[in-house]
Amino acid sequence: MSKTAEYLNLSTSIDANFQSSLTAADALELLKAGNQRFLSQAPNARERSALLEGAAKGQAPYAAVLGCIDSRAPIEEIFDAQIGDLFVARVAGNTVNGDILGSIEYACKYAGSKLVLVLGHSSCGAVKGAYAALKDGNLTGLLERIEPAVAPVREANGDNPSDEAIDTCVANNVRLVCDRIKQESDILAGLAADGSIAIVGGVYNVATGEVDFTVYS
Fold this sequence. Notes:
11 helices; about 220 residues
């Protein structure tokens, strides 16, 4: 039986035994299958009371997802995830800092998650703000972290971006954040190097609901 089939047969939340049986590839397949259920409007249904009862005993999420705060990209819904399935960190532009890195380190080293997914999305407002070199309050520093993904596209396309140019920046940002996770966290880089986890990137299309998992792998 595939791990997706085992997952769909669960009656309560994920436990440590199921989590420990997964590889990083299994975790990625669970995310892909969840997105397909979301697209086909065929959600996996488990009783809320059973999920809460299981969650009260502890947590064993199979993946950690770093996404944007955008209201059009609700992480758990995109992946048809249940209570206890995912660690989710959200910040404008799905960028990374020390607090985010520490959270993901906890998720993988101490709580056993098998996968880190950096998830950008089409038409990202934070990326548009970085493209426009917006400077305002605390946004200034946040958008500066996205600037390396934007600068080469702006240089090639000028100051007034097309939708395609913004989406290119979004994909660039996902790849750069994945690289930064490895560069700035010895813990996560080590876990990735020995195969305990995988660090991957994707882009969610806010118009279609589909996740492109080919951005970074």
